[in-house]
Amino acid sequence: MAQLAVNVDHVATLRNARGVTFPEPIAAAVAAETAGADGIVVHLREDRRHINERDVRLLRKIVQSKLILEMGATSEMLGIALDVKPDCVTLVPEKREELTTEGGLDLITHENNIRQAIATLKNAGIAVCIFIDPDLDQIKLAHKIDADMIEIHTGAFCDATNDAQKQSEFSRIVDAAKIGTKLKLEVNAGHGIGYNTIQAFKGLSEISEFSIGHSIVARAILTGMDQAVRDMKQLIGAL
Ligand SMILES: CC(=O)[C@@H](O)[C@H](O)COP(=O)(O)O
Ligand SMILES: NCC(=O)COP(=O)(O)O
Q1: Is the ipTM above a cut-off of 0.85?
Q2: CATH number of 3-237
Q3: How far away, in angstroms, is 214 Cα from ligand 1 center?
Q4: Which of 23, 110, 119, 162 is the most exposed place for a label (fewest CB within 10 A)?
Q5: 163-199 residue pLDDT tens
Q6: Is 193 in the pocket of ligand 2 (CB under 6 A)?
Q7: ω into 25 cis (within 30 of 0)
Q8: Is residue 7 lining ligand 2, measured as CB closer than 6 Å?
Q9: Is 213 in the pocket of ligand 2 (CB under 6 A)?
Q10: What pLDDT shows up at residue 37?
Q11: Residue 107 CA to chain centroid, in angstroms?
């Protein structure tokens, strides 16, 4: 069965919107783990719009499963990662003005910088994942520059508004997962996945882990984190 890594960024979004100390993303992470999450994900953005450094450091102490830190490959973030030592870093592209991550890392443009970041993190014993579009050339490059894992960006599929678009985006994901596995990369998937889109992955056994945040946090507001995580785990179990 594929694993579920739960992103708690948007618990911090709510906290920060009010400028107070709650809701507490650390409490959300503990609740998610208790409900069966296989990992906790946070994206430390340059502008600290949700998760901040204090959250990451506390999570490192408290998370029992595995801590996955999403970040841009900047010298500031590399310094934090080397100090905090998450179990895994997922390197993502970041634009300050974007509402959420818009695309995968462009390794063709940033090959040297990302290759160096991968080597630095791996030398410190941190596994490295590349958040990447379902593009075969990019995935081959991720393998060439020694990434351990890829996370296929599923946003275009999840956001597709008609069946033809959905089918064509999903077949890109299938091809990407198959080539990643052939290259012996661990293949994960994430961005925009919800309770209604997860079923599409049935039979795609190449995916080792789903990285899901917004839909789980949104459901947790209505049902509690425990139920929201259990519901998603059940859907993943049925794939
Ligand atoms: C990299 C990725 O997949 C994203 O889902 C990212 O973590 C989202 O960033 P925000 O939480 O800031 O929307
Ligand atoms: N890596 C994907 C992630 O962490 C969560 O993305 P989303 O479910 O909030 O879109």
Answers
A1: yes
A2: 3.20.20.70
A3: 9
A4: 162
A5: 999 999 999 999 999 999 999 999 999 999 999 999 9
A6: yes
A7: no
A8: yes
A9: yes
A10: 98
A11: 18
Pocket test for ligand 2, best of 159, 211, 216 (most atoms within 8 A of CB): 211
- What residues of the chain score a pLDDT lower than 70? none
Domain assignments of the chain as residue spans, ordered by start: 3-237
Binding-site positions for 1-deoxy-D-xylulose 5-phosphate read 9-10, 45, 50, 100
Closest CA to 220 of 228, 232, 209: 228
Instruction: Quote the pLDDT of residue 130.
Output: 98
Radius of gyration of the chain (CA): 17
- Which pair of structure tokens corresponds to residue 89? 């870093």
Q: What is the pLDDT of residue 196?
A: 97
The alpha carbon torsion through 158, 159, 164, 168 (nearest 10 deg) reads: -60
- The pLDDT of residue 101 is 85
Q: State how far the Cα of 177 lies from the Cα of 239, in Å rounded to an integer.
A: 15
> Does 191 sit in the ligand 2 pocket, CB within 6 Å?
yes
Type of residue at 200: A
Ligand (nearest to CA of 4): 2
H runs (alpha helix) in 85-224: 107-123, 136-144, 155-158, 163-182, 214-223
**DSSP letter, residue 4:** E
